[in-house]
Amino acid sequence: MANKKDRVLSFVQSNPGRTQQEISRALNIPPYTGQGVNPILRKLTTEGLIKRERQKRSYKYYPVSTSVQASAQLQHPEDNEEDMLKNCTKENLLIVVSCSKQKVWGEENWGPAYVPAIHAYTGDDVTWLRNNVPKGRGFHCLILSAKYGFIEPEHPIHNYNVTFNEPETGPISADSLKNQVCCQCRLFSGKEKKLSEFRYVLVKGSDTYVKKTQAAFDSIAVVQKLTDELWNKIVANLGTKVGS
After folding, report:
1. What is the DSSP letter of 214?
2. pTM for this one?
3. What are the C-alpha distances in Å from 130 to residues 67, 183, 222, 243?
4. Which fold, 2-63?
5. Where are the CATH 1.10.10.10 domain residues in the chain?
C-alpha cells in the first residue's frame, strides 16, 4: 500500500483539484478495495498531506504545503513553568495524552470493528484522561496516536499495531504531524478550533510523545511534559474542579 500511497500523493501534488474518480482512473487503482484510492485519500487527509475541498460530492483533493511562512509563526513566552501557570487559560491550553499498545480488543481481537479512542485505548495515559478530565469541564484534549496522529477522544479507531519506537510498523511521520498542527482543525465540544491557535500544550506520556509533540508544535506553542504535580497546580490556578 505504501507504493500506492506515494503514487496517489504524487498525483494529487502534480494534479490538484482532481476527484477520487479521476485519480482512480489516472492511476488505474480501484476506488473502494482495501488498498484502493478511497482509503488512501482518507489516510493522506488524516495525516495532513492533502486536503479535501469542502463541498458536496464529488470531492476534489488538493496538496497541503509542508512549509510554514515565518510571518505566520506565533511568538510565545519562554518555556518555563512559571510563565505557563501565569498565562495559561482553558482556551489556550491543549492537553495531549499518548495512545497505548493496550486496547479494548485484547489478544483475542474480539469486539466492534471501530471504538471511540477514549474507550479503545486502555493504557495508563488515556485512563488518566478518562478519570481526571471528564467531558464538559471545558478543557481541550487530544490523543496522540502513532497511526492517526492528533485525534479527538471521540474519534473512532480500529485495532492496529503501530508504534513510534518501531519505524517498520509505519507510524505517522513527523511531517504529517507538523502539517496537522499547521493546517488542520479539531472538534472540541462541537466547535472547531485550529491546532495552531493553542499557546500551551501539555503532554501526558513518555518522552517519545513529548518530543513528537514538541516537533509538531515547533514555533507555534510551548510544549511541556504533564506531571501529576503540574496538573494539580493548573487545576488550582484555574480554580476548576476536575475529577469524577
Report:
1. H
2. 0.69
3. 35, 28, 24, 9
4. Arc Repressor Mutant, subunit A (1.10.10)
5. 2-63
